[in-house]
Amino acid sequence: MLFTFETIYLGKNKSDHKSFHPQLPKKVKALVAKPNKISVQKLDKDLSVSADGSEAAPPALRRSLGSWQVQLISIGAIIGSSYFLGLGELISQLGPSIVLAFALGGVIVWFVAMAMGELCAEMPREGSFVSFARELIGAPWAAGVGWSYWFDWCAYIASEMIGGGIILHQFIPACPAMLWTAALGIVVSVLNLLDVKWFGAIDSAMSLIKILAVAAFAFVGIAIYLGFAGNAGGVIHESSFFTAGKMTRETLFPAGGLAVVLSMVIILVNYAGTEVISLASAETDDPSKHVVRDCRRVAISIVVLFVVPLLVLVSIFPYTQASLNQSVFSQALEHYGFKWAAAFFSFVALTAAISCANSGLYGTVRALYGLGKEGLAPAMVTKLNRAAIPGVATWMTIAGCWGFFPLYVFFNGTAFYTWLLAVSGFTGAVCWLSISWSHLRFVKKRDGRAPLWCYASISLQLLCLGLIPFSKEFRGCLLIGIPVLVIPILLVYWRRKKAST
Hints:
This protein is 69% helix and 1% strand. It is an all-alpha fold. It is built from 23 helices and two strands. The chain has a two-stranded antiparallel ribbon with strand order 1-2. The two termini are 46 Å apart. It has helices spanning 5-8, 26-33, 40-46, 67-78, 81-85, 87-94, 97-122, 129-136, 139-171, 177-191, 196-226, 235-239, 249-252, 257-262, 264-271, 276-280, 287-316, 328-334, 341-373, 391-411, 415-447, 452-467, 478-500, and strands spanning 2-3, 49-50. The chain is globular.
């Protein structure tokens, strides 16, 4: 029960202002005993007290998401349209060694998930990795990580919507691709304005479609390899690197071992979104009880969903034939007579684009909300609407995403647009590095020392970041990624210096 201003102030005029409810907090008594221009409505809203005399808790995010929904939302943010449409070029370059590259990336994902789960369980915060960085590293670094993360996802969400628009344009050419893009942008925006319970149900359903599609490909691919499906006869033995005499260094690493190491940048881009589970944990029933298990399950699930289908793929399909013209998964199935594969995986890629953008927007809004909670963004982004979601932060993020749409029209096909998309590899690695760094400091403060895997995790991530300048495709993203990270850091230092003077 809450006592409003009218119930706790018993006097009828200013001379009676010392008659108070006995359980009225001192802070409120002082305000009422010395009348000012504060309105009754503001006192009623901001200074309500509970029956035991304590001030009412401020509005908070609703804990409406189940454990399985949080896991699916995170997987939804990871598997985007690029998984189905963009792996062809990478497979044609790396060949069978792409399996090893994703397995190595999976090791980093596992380390980050372990650190993320322990931090969320021991230090539950609505701001997730932003709050961890603020408390364990410092406000300047937290601002840099948080704002670069927000910028990156705004660009990435826009690119997923553009990809979805192109797919729909292929189905219905009469409607321009950008019109489809705008329509998908409206759908994703509306979904993120729903109550989190309904959002979780819808997004989880879309994630399940992607998971089932990947599982179906792996199942059919294994059947093809064993000779139970497909009509290509002996082609399987010619394309498989498992054939006797073909498992040589040249066939396993056609581009050389160094190419696998350099590819880790794009591998981490594909794994980006793992951290969304930590942002969603603030809206689960009991994060301290479930979040460690959820982080581990997501890490294992996503590595399996990448590694196993790719292993099957390079076992049944000549990697030199992979291209960006269509999904490499549909290429492989059509190679064995499954003519429906192209339309099926186009639909799955469309679902993946919407799901990835939807989950990504959800996580990006919560990151901005966390920045506001830590005083690193305008306070208005922490305001919750009637659905108990950060309304201002949602609209601000939607506006940021829509701001990137025109860049596709003006810069499509240019190096700048490629850099803009590639910056997700840089900012994603920085985010994971921040989580691992925060965890290292937390464990050392708690236990006095940290296990070896904490240092191994940070070392591997620093190695991946250090490789970016050596990648022709991605070195240009540093021209965008570094300023987006550094400028918020400098602004916090400048604000502190100005406040001290």
